[in-house]
Amino acid sequence: MKSVWIFVAAQVCLALLAMPASTQEFTGNVLHEECLKPTQKAQNFCYGFIIGAIDGLTYGTGLGLAAAKSDPGGGEAARFLFFCTPKGMTNGQQFDVVTNFLDQNPQLRHQSAVDLIQTAMRDAFPCE
C-alpha cells in the first residue's frame, strides 16, 4: 500500500513540474495576440481570461472590504481596493475596456496580463 502512495505522489510531482511556473509569464503581449486572432477559440479564451481575471480581482476586493470592516483603521485591507465598477456594467463593457487599454498601451504589454487588466479597470473606474 505504501508503494502505491509513493507512486501517486511521484505522479502528482511530475504533473506539477509540467505546469507553467506562474501566471506572471502570461504577459499583455500574449493576451493581446490571442485577442487579435480571428478564431472563435482564441476569442473565447481572450474573453474568458479577461472576465475571469476581473471576477477574481473583484472577489479579492470584496475580501478586502470585509477585512476593512473588521479593521476600522483600513490597515492592510486598503490594498485590496483596486477599482469600483458602476452598477449595471456588462462583461462586454469590461472586455472592451481591457482590450482598448491593451491596444492603446503597447509600451506596457510586456507586463503581467492580470496586472494590466487591473490597471485598465482601475484607470477606467477608480474608487472614490
What does this 3D model show about the protein?
The structure is a single chain. It is built from 5 helices and no strands. The protein has 128 residues and is mainly alpha-helical. It starts with a helix and ends with a helix.
Short note summarizing the structure:
The chain has helices spanning 2-18, 28-36, 40-70, 91-104, 113-124.
Question: Looking at the structure, what is the overall shape?
Answer: globular
What amount of the residues lies in strands? under 5%
In terms of quaternary structure, what is this? Answer: single chain
Radius of gyration: 19 Å
The percent range for helix content is 55-70%
Give the structural class. mainly alpha
Order of helices and strands: HHHHH
Our measurement of the CA-to-CA distance between the termini, rounded to an integer number of angstroms, reads 59 Å
Pick out the low-confidence regions. Answer: 1-19, 73-79
Let me know the average pLDDT.
77
Number of strands: 0
What's the helix count?
Answer: 5
| Sheet with the most strands, sense and barrel status | none
Topology diagram in text:
Layout lengths: L1 H17 L9 H9 L3 H31 L20 H14 L8 H12 L4
Key features of this structure:
128 residues, 0% strand, globular
